[in-house]
Amino acid sequence: MDTDSIPDFPVIVLFDEAKASERGSREWDTLSKRVREAGENWGCFEVVYHELPAQLRSEAFSALKPLFELPPETKAKNNNPKPYHAYAIVGPYEGFGIEDASNMESVQHFSELMWLSRGNIQFCQTITALVKHVEKLISILETMIMDSYGLVDQKFCECSSLLRVMTYSTQPTGDEFPIQLHAHTDKPLLTILCEDQVSGLEVLSKEGTWIPVSLSSNSFFFLVGDPLMAWSNGRLHAVKHRVVLKGGKERLSWCVFAVPKEGETIKTPEELVDEEHPLVFKEFDYNAFLNFSMSKEAQVIDSALQVYAHAGLTTLKY
Ligand SMILES: O=C(O)CCC(=O)C(=O)O
Ligand SMILES: [Fe+2]
């Protein structure tokens, strides 16, 4: 396919003008509609967000990089029984998980495991500041989605922020570009992703084309996860994505995942159910779904279909 015919995923700028940040203004409503349409048509978009200072963004990458230099036995201390929360090294992929990453105590606990009792106060301050900004961004996007569906002052569910930081190291050999992270849909509610200059993320369009993503120095990437798709009664699209490195350079990226808290259930609001949109999913406990997605039974099901297998009311899509 020639590059001219590759469709572009949406880019949404928050906020170009002050009026757009005023909830209820015409500009806010226009942006909210764009957020919702991007979520429905693509399940992802690039979001330009100047409120998160460029300096903090680069300080965070500088603070996260040294983690990968630590001895293997230290890295292994980032242990956590919850899926996606622990250190993992699988082929070219290496990643750490920091749970509740806007909370100083939680990040301090992580830093004391990595740097012993000295901890690393600079690291803790940078990471919590970063994740607080990302939580603000998530909250704006959540409010916009709610407003555009007419669900004023509702929330998806109570979430905490899991920060995962990742590197991918395989180099291409000849014309072969090995897949570094296999195609999947995200199991948390939603994801904000950021990369340190080296691109490699690809998203699957509804037409079945893999589209490369390349972020600017003040943009982030929003991805709809399976539970958010289920909450929206299938309106928002849980987009498949993968990582393929083509430039021969190591990639460093982080994701802030909004993870529903223990005991939270995913329930479609009745306003999103009508004759044209019959209910697709029963209400389900988030952790039960997460555990299912890690089970042997789920491993043989395509990632995007696991939520249908777990909570779908019809087998139509599954
Ligand atoms: O590193 C990336 O760009 C993608 C990471 C990702 O998709 C994930 O951790 O779920
Ligand atoms: Fe992902």
TrEMBL record:
GO molecular function, one term: metal ion binding
Superkingdom, natural source: Eukaryota
Keywords: Iron, Metal-binding, Oxidoreductase
Alphabetized Pfam families for the sequence: 2OG-FeII_Oxy, DIOX_N
Cited SUPFAM superfamilies: Clavaminate synthase-like
UniProt domain Fe2OG dioxygenase: residue ranges: 159-260
Family that this chain belongs to: Belongs to the iron/ascorbate-dependent oxidoreductase family.
Protein name, as recorded: Fe2OG dioxygenase domain-containing protein
Native species: Aristolochia fimbriata (White veined hardy Dutchman's pipe vine)
